[in-house]
Design brief:
The protein is of the alpha/beta class. The protein is 34% helix and 22% strand. An 8-stranded mixed sheet has the order 6-3-7-2-8-1-10-9, sandwiched between helices. Strands 4-5 form a two-stranded antiparallel sheet.
C-alpha cells in the first residue's frame, strides 16, 4: 500500500522563486537563505518520495475571487505554472498522479470533507516555490505532485483544527491506496506576516518559533488558535500556517530531521521544517 514517509512545512515567499529564477542564490542578501536550504535538499533526496501532496493556497491566480472553495484537490495529469503578471515561472510543469488523486478525493468526501475537484488548473508561486526550495532547479520535478489548495485569502477560512483533522483523513486515504508508493506531504505558506495596512511588514519571531516548537509534539495546542489569534499575533497572512497543521495531521509520529528559520526575507520570515515518519 501507499505510505506517508515524510512531511515538510515550508514558506512560499514569491521572492524566493524570483531569486532562484534569476540565479541570485549567491547574492549577499539571499545567500544565507539558500545555504540554509542545502541540508533539506540533501535530505529529500534520501527520502525519495514518489508523490508529493502539496498543500498550498492559490493567490487569485487559477481561481478568481468570484468563486472561492475552501478545499480544492487537483485530479489532473499536469499543472502548468501560472502567469502572475510577469510571465510564468520557467520551472517544470507539475506532473500529477490522477489515479491516486481520484482515490484521495473519494475517500475524503466519504469521510464528509467537502472537497471541490479541479480537472484542470494552473499553479502559482504557492506551489512552485516550495518545490524550488526542496528540489532546486531540475529539468523535471523528481516526483509526481498532487495539489491541495486551501482558502486562506478570504474570510471565513477553515480553522486549524479542521485542517489538522483533514490531514488525518488524508493519511487514511493514502494508506488505503493499493499501490506501493512513498508519499510526502508538504504544508506551505507563512510564517507570520502582513502585506497591507498599518501593520504591513509585521514580523513576530516569538510567535513563529512558538509554532515551530509545538508543531511536532503538541500540534493539538496549535489547533486551538483562532482566526483572531492569527490576525493579532501573526498578521493577516499568518493564517497560512493552518496548512502546516494539515501536513502535521497526516503524520503519526514524526521525528524532526531538519529545521531552518531566516528573517527577514522580503517582508516576512522564511521557515522550513522537515519531518520523517517513524511509524
Amino acid at each position: 500500500m501507499a505510505k506517508i514517509v515524510a512531511g515538510v512545512g515550508c514558506s512560499h515567499i514569491p521572492s524566493i522563486g524570483a531569486a532562484a529564477d534569476k540565479g541570485m542564490e549567491q547574492d549577499p542578501y539571499y545567500k544565507p537563505l539558500f545555504d540554509g536550504y542545502a541540508p533539506a535538499r540533501e535530505w529529500i533526496k534520501k527520502v525519495a518520495p514518489d508523490v508529493v501532496i502539496l498543500i498550498y493556497n492559490d493567490h487569485a491566480s487559477a481561481f478568481s475571487v468570484e468563486l472561492i472553495n475552501t478545499f480544492v484537490l487537483g485530479v489532473g495529469d499536469r499543472y502548468k505554472p501560472h502567469d502572475e503578471g510577469y510571465g510564468p515561472r520557467q520551472v517544470p510543469d507539475a506532473i500529477g498522479h490522477a489515479d491516486l488523486s481520484a482515490h484521495i478525493l473519494e475517500s475524503l468526501i466519504l469521510d464528509e470533507f467537502d472537497m471541490a475537484l479541479a480537472n484542470e488548473m494552473t499553479v502559482d508561486h504557492g506551489l512552485t516555490v516550495p518545490l524550488t526550495v526542496m528540489f532546486d532547479k531540475p529539468d523535471a520535478w523528481p516526483c509526481k505532485i498532487i495539489p491541495l489548495c486551501v482558502n486562506v485569502i478570504k474570510y471565513p477560512q477553515p480553522t486549524g483544527n479542521r485542517c489538522f483533522n483533514l490531514g488525518k483523513a488524508l493519511r487514511k486515504a493514502v494508506e488505503s491506496y493499493p499501490e506501493d508508493l512513498r508519499v510526502a506531504v508538504f504544508g506551505t505558506g507563512g510564517m507570520g506576516h502582513q502585506l497591507q495596512g498599518e501593520r504591513a511588514g509585521l514580523l513576530n519571531q516569538e510567535f513563529d518559533q512558538h509554532f515551530l516548537d509545538h508543531l511536532k509534539d503538541a500540534p493539538e495546542e496549535l489547533t486551538k488558535l483562532s482566526h483572531v489569534d492569527y490576525m493579532r499575533d501573526a498578521g493577516s497572512e499568518g493564517i497560512e500556517l493552518i496548512m502546516w497543521l494539515m501536513m502535521r495531521g497526516a503524520l503519526k509520529a514524526p521525528s524532526e530531521a531538519y529545521r531552518f528559520y531566516h528573517v527577514p526575507m522580503s517582508n516576512t520570515a522564511a521557515g522550513l521544517v522537515c519531518y520523517e515518519e517513524t511509524e
